[in-house]
Write the structure tokens for this entry.
Amino acid sequence: VRRALSEALKSVPNAPHDVVFTLATDPEATVATPVLEFSPVLTDEDLQAIIQASPLTAQLVAISRRINVGEEVSNAIVGTGNVEAITALLTNKSAQIREETLDAIIDAAPRQVSWHEPLVHRPNLDSKAALRIAEFVAASLVQELARRADLDADTVTTLGKLVQDKLRKNGENAGLAADD
């Protein structure tokens, strides 16, 4: 019954807030996730409170997938350190992620391969972030970074050089492995 109610109310803009919030905090993921991902009734403050209550991965991922996730909510999600939720947040093109939060993600990203591709495709990357990402992602992803239209010519040139360096190093490492 709770699951059916959650599905029915997930997109209703005038649903009772207390009912939606109760469903959003339900310990059963199949009840909570529909309203967490879609309900227009839940505020950023509601979402932050739910995140701080240490919900399960499914709930964090549902919040990360919401349309237009705000900067404070994004920051709270990143603060959990939940890899799946952060991956979903990075993949969400409409999520607003402030520069400091993105810097924290980039700091941890070399150890999280699942973040590499979503970082490369993240909208509105500045040159500094793009160059930092290029340091640890595969050469093919650096090539994708270099093809972005939103980066300046100097950054694209630098990325092109990084691709060449990575390919040369990979070729040298492959030669060394063949000699073994």
Q: What stands out?
A: The mean pLDDT is 93.
